[in-house]
Amino acid sequence: MSTIVVQSDTMLWIRDILKSEMDLKDERIFFYNQDYVLPKDQGLWVIVGFSGGRPYANRNYTGTDKSGNFVEKQSVNSLEQIMVHLMSYNLEAYQRRYDVPLAIASIYAQQKQSALAFRIGRNPIGPVDASGQEGPEINYRFDWTLNVLVAAGKIKSADYLENFITELTVADDTSKDLQVTFDPSVKPVGLT
Fold this sequence. Notes:
Layout: E1 3-6, H1 10-21, E2 29-31, E3 45-64, E4 70-88, H2 92-95, H3 99-104, H4 107-116, E5 119-120, E6 125-129, E7 140-157, E8 166-170, E9 178-182
């Protein structure tokens, strides 16, 4: 069984946009729940995480591929929420809190969305001051919520019932009924 999968790597795409537009080094931007060590200096670091989603379209239909093989095509469209946390021991998280909406509206972000067929909402929710969640050590934390429209899908070879014999009886006004037996996976001869 061959399978072609189209995945939505939303967190990876958002991380890439923020890293590029905010000019962050790899050790300054992490995924939520990733095993990382916080930088020892006072500077900014960013955490990107999946917060939730809501599918709004889910389809499954059959067809044939280029070689004429029977395939099943599945797709789902979803609205995902991606959280972005800006954190620092010093004022940098506060000073750069608007870098997130600037990054997602950038030309680079627009090109990335066009190339990968996803869409980031232009009006993120935030910045929310979440500094109190980190205790006394981390003085500044600002959270953003991004709404992202994404699609994912799968095309795979589909099984079907071969040699499944169907019997059809057609009754008319006469005393004779017409009875035909055929295999529905094979096109009947003489029909177009």
